[in-house]
Every structure is written in C-alpha cells, then in structure tokens.
Amino acid sequence: MATKKVSPKKVSVLDADQIISAYMEDVLNHEKKPATVYGFCKAHDFEETSFYQFFGNIEALEKGVWEAFSSQTMRLLQKNEDFTNSSSREKMLGFFFSFFELLTLNRSYVLFTLKSDKNMLHGLMALKGLRNHFKSFTKDLIDLDNSSAQSKLTQFQPAIFSEAAWVQLLFTIKFWMEDSSPGFEKTDILIEKSINTVFEVFNNTPLEQVFDLGKFLFKERMA
C-alpha cells in the first residue's frame, strides 16, 4: 500500500488512507504499535479530532489496515472488465492472487504485526473487518451461482461455503508467512490447488483434487 507523505504542517483534513499509511510506517519504524491516539497524532502532526472521524481507537485502526487490504483488492479486480464476466471460481482465484500480491507489497508490516502478537485471539480480532468483507464477497459469489442452478440439489449453502473459504484464506496467510520460495511461488501453487479443491468439494465431484492438495501439503511439511 503506497505511503502518502503528510505535510510537516499540522494536518486538519485527513482521509483514512493517510492515517493507515502513517500507522503502518510508524509500526515498522518503531517496531511497536502506538500506545495512544494522542501520541500517534502528535508524532504525525494530525488533529486528534480528525483521527476520530475514521477510527475510534488504535485497535480500530489496526483492523482498518486489513479492511483496506480487502477493499483495495476489490477495487483492483473491478477495474478489470473480464472480472465481471468471470465464473465464481475465477473470481475467487482472482481475489486470492491479487490479495496476496498486495500482502507481499506490505510483507514487512504483515509479518511484524501477526508474528509479534502472541495472543492468537487478538490477532484474529484484528482480522475481523477483513473477515466480514471476505465472507460477504464469497456469499455473493455463491448466491449468484445458486440463482443459475437448475436444481436445489446442486446449490451451495452460502454460510457454509463462506466459512470454509475464510478458513482457507487464514491457512493460506499462515502458509505465505512461512513461504521462503522465490517469488512465493509455492503460495501460488497452494492458492490454485486449494481454490480448485474447495469448488470441487462443494460441487460433489470426485475427490482427486483433495488428494492432490493433500500430497502437496504433506510434501511441504516434510521439506
């Protein structure tokens, strides 16, 4: 996420992206999260009242970073005319690949914040906004598929599918964090195999792809 330079003069008019960029830069420069909104705003010459127009506290700002990752991913996808006419599977693949490209651009921030937080529950809370955005996106995909299904027997359950997709996204984030392959090519392989597997399972087709994914993950675990 490109960092916007904020004028050294006290800034009274802000947008959420400026605050998020300043926060990410602050975390990386000091290797810790700001202790207070007051201290954060003073360090960046922000009006504290302007901060509160977008975020209620530092924790809300932390969640806002992940929401911004999701929103920016969707904006990038929607600029592509082919995305609108793509299948649900292709749209899901497009989201995963674009999302992880964005994470890679901000890898230092993501690794620091997720690895430094030993409280797993707190870490998941920071992803709450991302979770809501992503589950809404996946539910919309399945609702669209269901509307064109000829039989109720071939329809997906949106709530179940979106939860499965969310778990898959969390797993892929963890895999990507530990991926040391050039260009994170192993993460790309995982994305393609796992998304194809999710759709194969929900389509009630033979499970060859499940075994294929399982062999890939076992091989990586043993490497």
Characterise this structure.
It contains twelve helices and no strands. It is an all-alpha fold and 223 residues long. Mean pLDDT is 82; it is low at 3-9 and 150-154. The longest helix has 21 residues, at 58-78.
Given the C-alpha coordinates, what overall shape results? Answer: globular
Task: List low-pLDDT spans.
Answer: 3-9, 150-154
Total E-strand runs: 0
Radius of gyration: 20 Å
Distance, first to last CA: 32 Å
Largest sheet composition: none
CATH architectural group of the largest domain? Orthogonal Bundle
Query: What percent of residues adopt helix (DSSP H or I)?
Result: over 70%
The CATH class of the largest domain turns out to be Mainly Alpha
SSE pattern: HHHHHHHHHHHH
Averaged pLDDT, please?
A: 82
Q: How many helices in DSSP terms?
A: 12
What is the total number of structural domains?
2
Summarize the structure.
The protein has helices at residues 16-30, 37-43, 48-51, 58-78, 81-84, 88-105, 107-116, 120-126, 128-148, 158-178, 185-202, 208-222.
Key descriptive features of the protein:
223 residues; mainly alpha; Tetracycline Repressor, domain 2; 2 domains; 12 helices; 72% helix; globular
Set down the secondary structure blueprint.
Blueprint: H1 16-30, H2 37-43, H3 48-51, H4 58-78, H5 81-84, H6 88-105, H7 107-116, H8 120-126, H9 128-148, H10 158-178, H11 185-202, H12 208-222
